[in-house]
Amino acid sequence: MDLTPSIATVKLSTIGVGEIITIRPGQRIALDGKVIYGISAVDQSPITGESLLVDKEVGDNIFAGTLNQTGYLEVKTTRKSSETTMAHIIHYHSFRWIAVGSKGSIKVN
Q1: Can you list the alpha helix ranges (DSSP code H) found in the chain?
Q2: Rounded-to-integer distance, Cα 71 and Cα 44, Å
């Protein structure tokens, strides 16, 4: 008898590149990846600032931090949690705030 579940909840840091994750309607997308099954409309505003939903289907890239709105998706991960687009944005802004705090202000040309 096989007691291994076909779907399990795990820590984000334990998911590697190339693994399959499922995303149900209303769930936030946890990792960057490529859609391998399903069709949905995704709110990408946290990444792109675009207010309109973006249709996603098989072969499309998907970003961590975005919100799946309407359909069920299966996604093959393309990056670890520490390397996602959202992680890079957070790192950049954290570094920028540290730099601003230590120098007072930054002149942008």
Answers
A1: 45-48, 85-103
A2: 15
Across 79-97, average pLDDT: 64
Tokens of 14: 């334990």
CA distance 65 to 90: 11
**pTM for this one?**
0.70
Phi, psi at 43, each rounded to 5°: -85, 105
According to CATH, the topology of domain 17-103 is 2.70.150
State the Cα–Cα distance between residues 67 and 46, nearest whole angstrom: 9
What does the alpha-carbon distance between residue 26 and residue 35 come to, in Å, rounded to a whole number? 17
d(CA 48, CA 46): 6
CB 60 within 8 A of CB 14: no
- Give the pair of three-digit tokens for residue 97: 């705030």
For residue 35, is pLDDT > 90?
yes
Give the C-alpha separation, 38 to 50, whole Å: 22
Higher pLDDT, 86 or 49: 49
